[in-house]
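The passage that follows is intended for readers who have already worked through the single-chain material. We present the inputs for a multi-component assembly, then the predicted structure in tokenized form, and finally a short commentary. You are encouraged to pause after the input and sketch how you expect the pieces to fit together before reading on.
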Amino acid sequence: MEKLMIEATKSSPSICFDPKANFLEIKGESYPENSATFYKPLFAMLDLYLSSAPLRDETFEVNLEIVYFNSISSKILMNFFEALDGAAENGKKIVVNWRYHEENDTALECGEEFMEGISAVAFNLVMIDMVK
Amino acid sequence: MDGDLFTLYRELKRDGIIFCFSGAISQGIVEGIGETLKQKMALEETRVSTMQKVFGIFVEQMQNISNYSAEKIESQKNESGTELRFGILTVGRDKEMFCIRCGNYIIKEDAGGLSEKLYKLRNMSKEELNIYFRERRKAAPEPGSKGAGLGFIEMARKSTRPIEFSIVEVDDVRSFFSIKVMLGED
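Having made your guess, compare it with the prediction:
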């Protein structure tokens, strides 16, 4: 599986998915014109990655740093977490780091809300400094 | 003509309007105005959490117009993504609160269903709205919904006061819909 690299725009986050390194990072704002279309390549690759048996023993690290996401993106993120949680229930080791700026209460609350819906994935809320 | 525009400008200022946009809404408009709105709030040292909420309501309202307004122009060619929808959006200050309003034409027949949906949200507590949001997020989208059908619930749960809305009959086929969200500073 090749790396998936998508650059950020004003309204869509950067995505870096390296299946060989068991690493995924999504970073930025998420309110694209068509969220389903934007996230399609990510979901396609995630399905492929999670169903590939040889990677079972290694921990999949997922770093999310989403400053703002609109309601449609929120639904997509929920589907994303459900896919991760399903795989984790089947024995895949997955760690999610939900990174939020210390002053961005909304991002923290959203992280907490996603965390509640998850059972098998290790979900960490990670505060980061405002310094850019 | 120039005098009329000055009158409009003064009226907007008098009503505490910071931003006013009327016309066709594209993704570029949402990004551009959204950016400027954040920049303005940052210059005024608005708290980050308040800024994120105002920006969030702004995006939901803009995308609501661009998804659902009944006033639109479409490309004659059969391509996707070649339509523009029209509406109006204002962001203002009312004493210590931010006031974010948007309006657009809707098909007259849709008025009943829409007002029923919004009355329901008006009567919910914050806790009920949060639960309802999570429920709807899990559920399949409603028929006729282009997004996830979550926009109004998101506006209602972020709003400091219950959302206000109005639907005015325009002619045999159209009504004008507007919604107002008030946000207090954190």
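Commentary: The beta strands of chain B are 17-25, 72-74, 83-94, 97-107, 164-169, 174-184. The first helix of chain B runs from residue 2 to 14. How closely did your sketch match?
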